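Me: I hope this is not a bother. Any chance you could explain this protein sequence and its structure tokens? It all follows right here:
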Amino acid sequence: MPATQSDWASWACLRNWWHATANTALVRHDGPSVNLQLSLLGVPVIGGEWGLSVRVDGKRLTWTDGWKCSCWSSDTDMDYIELQLELPDGPMLCRQVMLSRKDHFLVLADSVSKAGRKRIDLESTLPLRPGVRAKSDKATREVRLATSDVKFRCFPLALPDDRLHSTVGEFDAALGELRLVQAASSESLYAPIVLDWSPERASLEAEWRTLTVTEEGRKLAPWEAAGHRLRLGKLHLVVFRSLHTSEDFRSVLGLHTDKESVIAQFDEKGYVLPIVSVDA
């Protein structure tokens, strides 16, 4: 297998194959920050600290401990790593990276849970390599990035895709970094981003939505669970995260699950096929 992970060394290599033009994500988490090196089709596009700033009721959280790998999974469909950091008398922070083995897309996500009934403000940044050019779409919140050899598109799934719809969040690329700002009024927050660099989908229209999640027929609040979908040509993804523990199954857009996290894809017949499922 081209991918590997080490708890002892606090790093992981997510990689779709051995060739020099492979898609690769190197994740190092041996300290309070997480380092991400991302190469698409063999071209380095992101490199450095995957920045994270979290404020709870205006107070910035600080930590000195390193992140722990809470889940590692690798098969013929994907490589996945989940990192967790539980603060003393504070919230739980989680970071997810999933690299598709069979297609050209990556899912990155941050979550904050167990924060109590307090406002949460999150800022996540990705350092762009020199030579990466950025352009924000005028109609949507999509950001397009490109080098001379590869083009990729970035979608903030928890923010409205249409710029006409107001939101407290932001998604942009400036000063050499890709930046996501998101806020929640209480308890929990989930902030997923999808990167897509498929040449066949480079010019296709994209749409994404926040989904309704239910449990036993009851509509869940955003702090209890989050569900989002992205449609880009034939690629139709569903990203789900349970933010509040429950013993009951939860439903979102045809997905019925008791898992904490699910990243799934619709097939041509409309069936939801999980790519990765993570137990609580």
Remarks:
- The chain has one domain: 4-200.
- The radius of gyration is 18 Å.
